[in-house]
Amino acid sequence: MNPIVVHVVRPYASELEYLAAEAWSIDARTMLLIAADELPTDTAVLFDVALRDGHKPIRAEGRVVGMVPPTGDRPGGLKVRFKRFGAATKAFIERAVKAREQAPSSSATSSTEAAPPPEPALPSSPEVERLSVPELVPAQEPSGVRPRVAGVVVAPKNREELLERLRLRRRGAG
Q: Which of 29, 111, 154, 157 has the largest CB neighbor count within 10 A?
């Protein structure tokens, strides 16, 4: 049987904001897909969680554990057990678990306190461009996976000569 595809969109601008608000919904083996439609227990699912800008910090495969009703100020949703996920999702789950552990009242289900950001914020884009050498970009994930930063491409000094060689090659004379 083919897995059911579940897309969840959360209203946060960044991973840090998402973790501060909803790290409680993620643990090492399961997560709550907030506002997802009900599915039968043990249904195979392919799911992702997207942020407001379309970035997907979680993409995984799993099985439905059941529905969790809303409690206190926390929404309910579809609880799934992870089966398979990639390195980026694994690193994000580890950050969420760490944020849960650091939360002052992580065991209270009606807490309104947000967890402190688990990692320092990424530098602004001009700073990222200056840090485009891999050794200078700080590791953002415990797994050692670093964000890939696109740098500025500068045209070579002999640009026109290179273009002319390509034009000649295309015409068959090169």
A: 111
Cα 50 to its chain centre, rounded Å, is 8
Q: Which residues partner with 5 through β-bridges?
A: 46
Instruction: Show the CA angle centred on residue 40, arms to residues 109 and 57, nearest 5°.
Output: 55
pTM of the model: 0.59
pLDDT at 87: 93
Distance CA(171)–CA(174), nearest Å, equals 8
Whether 26 contacts 62, CB under 8 Å: no
Per-residue model confidence as pLDDT tens digits over 67-118: 999 998 999 999 999 999 999 999 999 999 998 888 765 444 444 444 444 4
Q: Provide the CATH topology of domain 4-102.
A: Thrombin, subunit H (2.40.10)
> Which residue ranges does the chain devote to CATH 2.40.10.220?
4-102
- Give a three-class secondary structure readout of 71-92: ECCECCEEEEEEEEECHHHHHH
